[in-house]
């Protein structure tokens, strides 16, 4: 395990670039009648004061690169990353299906000029139905498949598309808790695999974001800024509620109303010798169409008060 920095370098918040994502507008799927149109998302994310966005689920935003560039550029927006879901712990037999999902997302991401691909492990519990579909704990063999498969994915994405992968610990996946995140990082090549630290998901699963940044700073390649409501989370954990229903219950909340406190996270991240994206994600699926914009405006104002 890496040791914490003995003498932390000076903070430089200028190296943190703040953006938002379709997730903060209640978008989880490429096409869903409960979600607002993509044009409105782009209009409102720009109106809220953000300059960077993620692509969200592939197919929600236009997949034609020229049209996507036109739609984003005329609103003053730039893409920071694409997102894929993988089930690499299931072994080499899943590779073809994995690559069939990853390749078009990576191609579009690269065409926008972005350089990151956020990789989210598959859920062991369905986020809509709460059905348990796999054991929440991996076997030793499955851990080997996961780490080897992730490194293979990182090589392929880098060589073919010039992108770096950032793996996203996520509630109800096999990379969630502090112990699982550390095991994953210790078993993967630091030159290939970086982490997308989502502060909300990590807190949801009992982790300390500041400690992770201070201990594994060289592995932090990307941030998602998010908070959880501690009272709702306590109820969720006590009842074993799945992540999807927990979101509908309001477990992810508007900052600065939840945990972790984002100022110390931003301070720790700004001391790393790295340029980082910090993408705001407040899971709100589903939500009324007029709810996201006021929250997005207030959140952007709050983050400016934090110096980013």
UniProtKB/TrEMBL annotation:
Residues 42-291 form the Xylose isomerase-like TIM barrel domain. Coiled coil: none annotated. It comes from the Bacteria. InterPro entries: IolE/XylAMocC-like, Xyl_isomerase-like_sf, Xyl_isomerase-like_TIM-brl. PANTHER family: HYDROXYPYRUVATE ISOMERASE, INOSOSE DEHYDRATASE. This is Xylose isomerase-like TIM barrel domain-containing protein. It comes from Streptomyces hiroshimensis.
